[in-house]
Amino acid sequence: MITNNIEVSHWGTPNPDGFHNWLTHLAILREIQSDGHLSPAYIKQTLRVRLEFPTSDRSAAEKLGIDTKWVKKYLGKVRKLRLNWPLIEGIEPTVLKNVLYPTKKAGPHTKPDFPTIHQKIQEDKSTRHQEWLQYACIHHQHKTYGMSHFYALYDKWLEAEKETRKWIPTPDETHHSLTDAAPRGGPIQA
Question: How much is the pTM?
Answer without folding.
Answer: 0.63
